[in-house]
Every structure is written in C-alpha cells, then in structure tokens.
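Hey there, shall we discuss this one?
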Amino acid sequence: MSDYKIAVIGLGYVGLPLAVEFAQKFTTIGFDIAQWRVDELNAGHDRTFEIEDEYLARVNKDFGFYSTANLEEIRDCNVYVVTVPTPIDKNKRPDLTPLIKASESVGKVLKKDDIVIYESTVYPGATEEDCVPVLERFSGLTFNKDFFCGYSPERINPGDKVHTVTKIKKVTSGSTPEIGLKVDALYREVITAGTHLAPTMKVAEAAKVIENSQRDVNIAFVNELAVIFNKMGIDTNAVLEAAGTKWNFLPFRPGLVGGHCIGVDPYYLTHKAQELGYNPEIILAGRRLNDNMGIYVANQVIKLMIKKGQKIEGTKVLMLGITFKENCPDIRNSKVIDVINELKDFGTQVDIYDPWADAAEVEHEYGVSTLSKDSLPNFAEYGAIVLAVSHDQFADLNLRQYDSQVIFDVKGILKDADARL
C-alpha cells in the first residue's frame, strides 16, 4: 500500500483536512484550480481554519505535502480523491458542474489500474452514471477493466475541532468487491475511528444523502413546533428541555438551516426520486418549511418592533452573524441572508457584524457589506438586534441599551431576549 501516490482534487473544507492526513502516510499532492488557494496553502495558511497554520506548515515541511494548480504535476499519481462541492442551482436542482469538471481533469491524467474515489455528496448512482462516462471519454480507458472507482462520502463538520476527519467513522465502497477492499484499507490507514465497507457505491451514495436529509426533516419538525408554540405564547426551548428528559427523545433545536450539507443534500435525493417518477412528500415539505424560516424570523422581529412603538421605515437593525453556523468562517448557503433581505424589504437599514466572516467573500457572495471586525458596533444605534449565529464572541455581550429596543435570539443563547425562535 505504500506505493500509492494520492492526489486530492479540491482543497476546501473537505479536501484539505483529508489531504493533510493522507500526506503523513503516503506521498500526497493537493490539487485545486484556484491559484490563490494553492499559493496560500503552500505558504502554510488555511483561511478556512480547518487546519491550524502551524500544523499545515509542519506537514508541508516534514512530509513533503504541497498543492498545485498544474494538472501535469498529478499525472503520476495512481489514486485520485475528488472532494469538490456539489451545490444546487437557483431552481434547487443539483449542479454537478464542479464534479464533471473535476472528472474531466482526472480523465486527462488517468492511467491503467488507477483508482478514482469520489467524496462529494451526490444522488445514488451519480458516480457510475455521471462521472464514469466522463472519465472514460477523457482517458480513453474502460471502467472496471483499465481503471476503477470508489465512493467514500465526506462527513466533515466545518468548525468542529472535536469531530475531525480522522475521528469520524468513514463509509467506503468500490466499483468491484476487490476495489472496495482496497479503498477501505486505504482509509483505515488514516481514519482512527474506523470504516464501514458498503456493498456497493450506490449504497454508500444513498447512505450519505439520507444522513443530512434525516437531520433536515427533524429540524423542520422542531421549527414547525416553534411556530405553533409562538402562537400559543409558549417557550419552545422550555418545551424541548422538558420533553428531552425522556431517554429516547431526539435533541433537535429550531434554527436557520443553511450550509452546504443539510440545506442542499435533500434536493439531490428528491431530484433522483422525481426523475424516477416518485414525488417525495416529507422530505420536500421539510425543505420548504426550513427554507422559509428566514422570512418567518424577519416578520417576528418586525412585529416586536411595532409592538414596542418603533417606526419601521429607516430604523437600523443589527444582524449578529452571517456565517451558516457558529465559530466557522463558512458563509455558503447561509440562510441569514434571507432574514436580512426580508428586513430590508420592510424598509429597515440592516448592518451586519460577524467576527468570523470574510468581508470580501460576503460582498462577492451576497452583495452586502459587513461592519469592521476591529471593534464592536454601538448597540444603542439599533432599534432591533438579531442574534443569528451563536459565535462564542456573542455569548456574553450586553446588547440591550433601552427598553424599546428589540432583541431577537435565533439560537436561544441570550438571557434577556424579547423572543427566541
């Protein structure tokens, strides 16, 4: 197994942590089409903060790990691990463009007996139906005769310093039983939590896509409870705490469901189901409910402002947080922007403060500016403050400055909030 030379394609939240671990066991090269990302990593810095700079620099130096945007530099690798994003388009349909482009690149350097392992979240069958034909076309090789594939779904949790890549059990699979064993053995070299070898790649693909679909449906359920209990004047968190005393009650909490997994993966499964003539009801109902929670939050904030006698038009509102989750710089598919846009539609002026988010990235992704990270905002300027993301920096802030000010807590961590989700 020591003769494996690995190329990890895509060096984001998923690819980089995996590449760094592989590099300590095998000759490993990171590949990314973004030259700025390559330069940054070779200089020993990861802007996602998934890998500490000191650790990355040590792996670069001691194990010869480096990154490149030059396809020729990964030509002599014999294992290619594809970890590119699989987003949805504006119509909430799977966008396989990054996956197809990555497959084209790999196909150009693919050789006899090479193995291509996909980690990107897809619908069941996508590896063989969408990726393999591209590999065959660009390489001129035949699948399961000249080259082979595997599927091992990523389980990265951005910002989580406890459940890191090596400490999360890994599902593995191969395009033949023999390749499945090879793929499984390869991952067992670096995954200390162990592996689970699925019987086929389709099973592994399906397992991944239902993991986050299950969470999505459960969060949708408690979000609906939050709406119902709010109409009843009941504290949702108090209800969930009481119900949670039963040994088998699932500890889900209401919230905005964004990011590149829970808010996206269900659409891959529903797309495939609809393609086969079945219209999923529960999964899509959960998605609709979760997708509308940003609008619901904004409306609740406006109602509270009116109750407190505030003028809405032109009043300043402060949004605390725009990343999709706490203590993480990832802004992809953040549902906080839905709250912001709805509040703006009511005529308020919205400022955004987030000590984790990159201002240029937020501007590029959502077309909105953020306040400087250098100092806290003057909370007295705002008629309403919405805590949207539970960054550690927000936990002990003294937000309320006057009685008519509205404090809305989406995450349920503030003691003096007027309302919580």
Notes: Residues 7 and 104 are 15 Å apart (CA to CA).
